[in-house]
Amino acid sequence: MTHVHSPAADAGSIDATAVVDTRAEIHPRAVVGPWCRVGPGVRIGAGTRLLSHVVVEGPAVLGEDVVVHPFSVLGGAAQQRRQDRAEERRDAELGRLVIGDRATIREYVTVNRSTHDGRPTTIGADCMLLAGAHVGHDSVVGEGSILANGAQVAGHVALGGGVRLAGMSGVTQRARVGRLSFVAGFGGVTRDVPPFAWVAGTPASVRKANRVGLRRAGLDDDAVDAVSAAVEIWRDQELPVVRRLELLAPPAANSAEVREFLEFVTAPSDLGSL
């Protein structure tokens, strides 16, 4: 069968070959393309398009104007094995996935729903997950983040807004990656990455400030310089942590970004509750 795009499809349509559960909620202006499968408990917003061969399992919410490319699987159960099989089944039933408006999901992306009914796996608005990327259960990807081809995010991970994971990089479970940071290609994050940092290697270490990313985000030269100075202090492994924190305290922390950096490196992670 040949499927020809027509302007009428922009108003919303469900292809005849798609399998859509009667308990799914599909906005009249959403498009479900050929050979897609949409399960119970899925809600798809206005203007969202499942191009073809996409699987969405619920409970899951896809916001408005999301584009999902072929062979992606969204909302699958957590990839974990529990000793207690009853508990494993219960977790699989409770979890949820939420994908924000205008997200772009490219080919062969997988995103698992959470294992908690109160805290979904979340992909923020305006994110891009490129071909072959994976986001594990109970993880949060901040708005405007980009996961390049083959980037892998384990379960219970928190990525701040505007994070960039380059191709084939990975983040281990329960790690935090701060806002506007950059993980270089093939980098392996095994511990928290502070905001605004550029990290590389396995295990990934802070090499410098992400000056290019900061400028693209609209920070002025003074803010970029202040952040760069803070990152240089933090990456100086010859200084005790206490001394580094002293150097990051006021007046250096008069910069909003430096205060954010300092709060991140001093705040205990709450990922254990995810």
What topology does this entry show?
Blueprint: E1 13-14, E2 19-20, E3 25-26, E4 31-32, E5 37-38, E6 42-44, E7 49-50, E8 55-56, E9 60-62, E10 67-68, E11 73-76, H1 85-94, E12 97-99, E13 104-105, E14 110-112, E15 121-123, E16 128-129, E17 134-135, E18 140-141, E19 146-147, E20 152-153, E21 158-159, E22 164-165, E23 170-171, E24 176-177, E25 182-183, E26 188-189, E27 197-200, E28 205-209, H2 211-216, H3 221-234, H4 241-248, H5 256-266
Parallel strand pairs: 1-4, 2-5, 3-6, 4-7, 5-8, 6-9, 7-10, 8-11, 9-12, 10-13, 11-14, 12-15, 13-16, 14-17, 15-18, 16-19, 17-20, 18-21, 19-22, 20-23, 21-24, 22-25, 23-26, 25-27
Antiparallel strand pairs: 27-28
Helix pairs in contact: 3-5
Helix content: 10-25%
Structural Rg: 20 Å
Biggest β-sheet strands, sense, barrel: 11 strands, mixed
CATH class assignment of the domain at 7-156: Mainly Beta
CATH fold name of the domain at 7-156: UDP N-Acetylglucosamine Acyltransferase, domain 1
User: What overall form do the CA principal axes indicate?
Assistant: elongated
Strand order of the largest sheet: 1-4-7-10-13-16-19-22-25-27-28
Q: CATH superfamily of the domain at 7-156, called what? A: Hexapeptide repeat proteins
Structural class: alpha/beta
| % residues in beta strands | 15-25%
The number of helices is: 5
Number of strands: 28
Q: What number is the mean pLDDT?
A: 91
Could you give the distance between the termini? 45 Å
Q: In the CATH hierarchy, what is the architecture of the domain at 7-156 at level 2?
A: 3 Solenoid
Which residues sit in consecutive blocks of at least 5 with pLDDT less than 50? 1-9
